[in-house]
């Protein structure tokens, strides 16, 4: 049982940003005005929880069960998975990739430097010659309680930066992708999937924080925008309070 009568002071979203990630995202421009895309409406034929909800081009929000179909993520071009309901003994940085010795895909824990360097490399060019089986998934796992007193803001800066690390490179690859697709090449732009157990509270809070930072919009606007695409998205009241504080620092 959590006592949320005296929640801890939120971190304002700055405490979990490592020097390695800071260096990798140092050239990202967060200040240029960005046009907010038209919200994507959910498919009424899909389960609202199981849906792979498209928030903006390249960014999806969903539940854990949907991400268990890893080849589905690979086929859609997913590069980064942000997992907000990791087990306490789960490594924070993992790569799911083909292993020659095992002759199948395996999950391997890696250090942060390896994770960042390989992620950047994978999002820098399109490889039309590589088989789908060889496509890696980079998984950032966070042990986060869906509790109003959990300091989820400690991860806002890092996870927003990782998401933008992929999506900014996706933007740079759009012309190359268009040319390759016209020639019949089988290529995919890099995507990001954020999830927790149900895709309702923890993961939604991260996506809302990203939308606020990227598009310079309010917490209320970002929440409504995300809910337009995923109606079940509803961060707990403690996370909403931390997002409100995050808004005051933007």
Automatic annotation (TrEMBL):
This is Dual specificity protein phosphatase, putative. Residues 27-47 are annotated as: Disordered. Residues 157-231 form the Tyrosine specific protein phosphatases domain. It catalyses: O-phospho-L-threonyl-[protein] + H2O = L-threonyl-[protein] + phosphate; O-phospho-L-seryl-[protein] + H2O = L-seryl-[protein] + phosphate. Pfam families: DSPc. It comes from the Eukaryota. GO terms for cellular component: cytosol. InterPro entries: Dual-sp_phosphatase_cat-dom, Prot-tyrosine_phosphatase-like, Tyr_Pase_AS, Tyr_Pase_dom, TYR_PHOSPHATASE_DUAL_dom. Keywords: Hydrolase, Protein phosphatase. GO terms for biological process: signal transduction. Transmembrane segments: none annotated. Belongs to the protein-tyrosine phosphatase family. Non-receptor class dual specificity subfamily. PANTHER family: DUAL SPECIFICITY PROTEIN PHOSPHATASE DDB_G0269404-RELATED (PTHR45948), SPECIFICITY PROTEIN PHOSPHATASE, PUTATIVE-RELATED (PTHR45948:SF5). Residues 87-250 form the Tyrosine-protein phosphatase domain. It comes from Bodo saltans. The keyword Hydrolase applies. GO terms for molecular function: protein serine/threonine phosphatase activity; protein tyrosine phosphatase activity.
């Amino acid at each position: 049982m959590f006592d949320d009568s005296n929640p801890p002071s939120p971190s304002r979203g700055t405490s979990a940003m490592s020097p390695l990630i800071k260096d990798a995202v140092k050239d990202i421009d967060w200040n240029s005005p960005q046009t907010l895309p038209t919200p994507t409406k959910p498919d009424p034929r899909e389960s609202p929880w199981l849906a792979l909800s498209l928030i903006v081009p390249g960014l999806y929000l969903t539940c854990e069960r949907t991400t268990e179909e890893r080849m589905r993520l690979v086929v859609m071009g997913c590069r980064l998975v942000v997992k907000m309901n990791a087990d306490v003994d789960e490594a924070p940085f993992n790569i799911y990739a083909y292993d020659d010795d095992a002759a199948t895909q395996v999950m391997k824990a890696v250090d942060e430097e390896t994770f960042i360097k390989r992620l950047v490399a994978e999002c820098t060019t399109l490889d039309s010659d590589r088989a789908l089986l060889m496509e890696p998934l980079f998984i950032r796992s966070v042990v986060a309680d869906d509790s109003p007193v959990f300091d989820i803001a400690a991860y806002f800066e890092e996870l927003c930066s990782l998401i933008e690390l992929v999506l900014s490179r996706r933007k740079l690859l759009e012309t190359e992708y268009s040319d390759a697709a016209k020639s019949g090449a089988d290529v995919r732009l890099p995507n990001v999937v954020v999830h927790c157990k149900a895709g309702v509270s923890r993961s939604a809070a991260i996506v809302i924080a990203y939308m606020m930072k990227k598009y310079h919009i309010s917490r209320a606007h970002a929440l409504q925008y995300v809910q337009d695409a995923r109606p079940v998205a509803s961060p707990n009241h403690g996370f909403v309070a931390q997002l409100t504080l995050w808004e005051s620092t933007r």
